[in-house]
Design a protein that fits this description.
This protein is 0% helix and 48% strand. The chain is mainly β. β7 and β8 form a beta hairpin. It is globular. The termini are far apart.
């Protein structure tokens, strides 16, 4: 099993940047495909980005392409989301998720397919 804890959220002006982190427990972090999701009040949970087990293969929602970058450091058991050129529409609770897989290149964008979730971190973008 793995436990996930997000950090790095906060209040930022439109056009600014934030870097979110997701710290994972255990020594098997490299066995998990990882993803970021977000949910704003009154809206359904939305896929943001995904990355494969060892990095190098990524997938982004159209709404964040060119602005957000997902990455991971398996030596530190940590997942990252670099968020640039932030917009008020990006305001939401951001959560990381993990899915165990034997496929090294696998990408997962469907929330119910993930096995583990963090509690989330609030990101608020003011205009």
């Amino acid at each position: 099993q793995v436990q996930l804890v997000e950090s790095g959220g906060g209040l930022v002006q439109a056009g600014g940047s934030l870097r979110l982190s997701c710290a994972a427990s255990g020594r098997t972090f490299s066995n998990y495909a990882m993803g970021w999701f977000r949910q704003a009040p009154g809206k359904e949970r939305e896929f943001v980005a995904a990355i494969n087990r060892i990095g190098g293969n990524t997938l982004y929602a159209d709404s964040v392409k060119g602005r957000f970058t997902i990455s991971r450091d398996n030596t530190k058991n940590t997942l990252y989301l670099q968020m640039n050129s932030l917009k008020p529409e990006d305001t939401a609770v951001y959560s990381c998720a993990a899915r165990s897989t034997t496929t090294v290149w696998a990408l997962v964008e469907v929330g119910p397919k993930y096995d583990y979730w963090g509690q989330g971190t609030q990101v608020t973008v003011s205009s």
